[in-house]
Amino acid sequence: MNVRQVSMAVAAAAGLLVLPMGATAGAREAPASPGRTPSDGQAVVEALYQAIAAGDGAVISGLLSPSLVWIEAEGGPYADRNPYNGPGAVFEGVFGRIGAEFRGFAATPVSLHASGDKVFAQGRYTGTNIATGEALDAQFVHVFTVSNGQITGFQQYTDTAQWVDVATPD
User: Fold this and answer.
1) CA nearest 94: which of 148, 146, 104, 105?
2) What's the confidence (pLDDT) of residue 135?
3) What angle separates helix 5-13 from helix 40-54, to the nearest 10 degrees?
4) Among residues 84, 92, 161, 170, which one has the fewest Cβ atoms lying within 10 Å of its Cβ?
């Protein structure tokens, strides 16, 4: 997710992370030729978002490679431990902290685009920071690297100024 693998699994299982999937139903790469289907990598990323929405830590863990390198956006609140190496680091350092700091958090992909071993997800983060009561509504782009049916790389791009503002008491 890494995004604190153990913490993420716990947060997802406890229902602290919510990911509506309705937005991704039609968001597939455009066929380059008749009969072409989305890439295997895209299917892996879709399965990851679905597992997060369902709070299925076991599936999340299975989709993340033991050699995963996860990088949060520079300047963001969770970039302090970059790079996160392995699913456990992601669950603890990313997912766990988000689960502890936000109520109603969701990462909602709007579109997915695959190219080679890369899958790009565009979407929005929403939720309310528990400490400040301020709402987050920030765009994101996630760049996944997928190999042999598992996610081996993740790079986040988001409005880090908004993340910091929402988490900082006035």
Assistant:
1) 105
2) 98
3) 60
4) 170
What CA–CA distances, in Å, run from 163 to 11, 38, 39, 78? Answer: 19, 32, 32, 10
Digit-coded pLDDT (tens) for 52-111:
878 788 999 999 999 999 999 999 999 999 999 999 999 999 999 999 999 999 888 999
DSSP per-residue codes, 3-59: TBHHHHHHHHHTT-EE---GGGTT--PPPSSTT----HHHHHHHHHHHHHHHT-HHH
Burial class for 118, CB neighbours closer than 10 Å (0-12, 13-18, 19+): middle
Query: How confident is the prediction for the chain on average, in pLDDT?
Result: 82
User: Closest Cα to residue 143, out of 107, 106, 105, 117?
Assistant: 117
pLDDT for residue 13: 34
Does the pLDDT at position 146 exceed 60? Answer: yes
SS3 sequence of 58-114: HHHHHHEEEEEEEECCCCCCCHHHCCEECHHHHHHHHHHHHHHHEEEEEEEEEEEEE
